[in-house]
Structures are given as structure tokens and as C-alpha cells.
Amino acid sequence: MTIKEISEKYDISQDTLRYYERVGMIPPVTRTAGGIRDYKEEDIRWVELAKCMRSAGIPVETMIEYVKLTQEGDTTIPARLQLLKDQKDLLLEQKSKIDETLERLNYKISRYEIAVETGILTWEDEA
Q1: What residue numbers bound the domain in which 35 lies?
Q2: Contact yes or no for 59/94 (Cβ under 8 A)
Q3: What is the DSSP letter of 25?
Q4: Could you give the CA distance from residue 66 to residue 3 in angstroms, rounded to a whole number?
Q5: Which of 72, 92, 116 marks a domain boundary?
Q6: pTM of the complete model
């Protein structure tokens, strides 16, 4: 697939795809004899992983480290496992904070819905 096709399929700009490759966030993409990017299945899986991880807020530096470790071979499997576990823990912590915020927002929304019906908003509803 061409960079244009990948860009459209995954809703990632071509510049972003080039950036991901340039900084090492994905391994170098397969090229044609003329040097044009020709995304093969393995390249596409890396793009999918990068998009997934970035949308979850995983830092670019972490993705670069993961790709680097992958390229170093099987001796880095324990390090890759630990990197993934660490990121999972960070995401679970973020999820917990988001869940707490959603609970508070849901409470406030319910109080405001009552206020809309009754015309009464107490001080406790504001804080």
C-alpha cells in the first residue's frame, strides 16, 4: 500500500507517518526499487500499533524504545514485557482518575437535572 492509502485508511497524515518512521516510532517501511514507501502487512501492523498506543497517550519515546528493543532481537523480550507492563500500569492509573472524574461529573449532572426540574440549586450542588 502507498503512504497515501495508509494515510487515508488510518486517518493519519502522511507527514505523521513519515515522522513516525523518521524518529523510530515504527521500523523503516518497505520500499520499492525506486525508493517509494510500499507498506507491507508487517509495516501496517506497526502503524496500527503506533496509532493505538498514541491514542492511549503512550509517549513517543516509549514507542521508540519498544521498536528499538524489538529490532535488537529476542534477548530483549523481558525488557519489552516490562515496558508493556509499565505502560499498562500507567494507563490503569489514568483510567482510575478518569473514572473518579466521571463519577463526580455524573453526580453534578444529576444535581443540575434536579435543579432544572425544581428551579432550586443548593450551595452543595455548586462545589
Answers
A1: 1-72
A2: no
A3: S
A4: 23
A5: 72
A6: 0.80
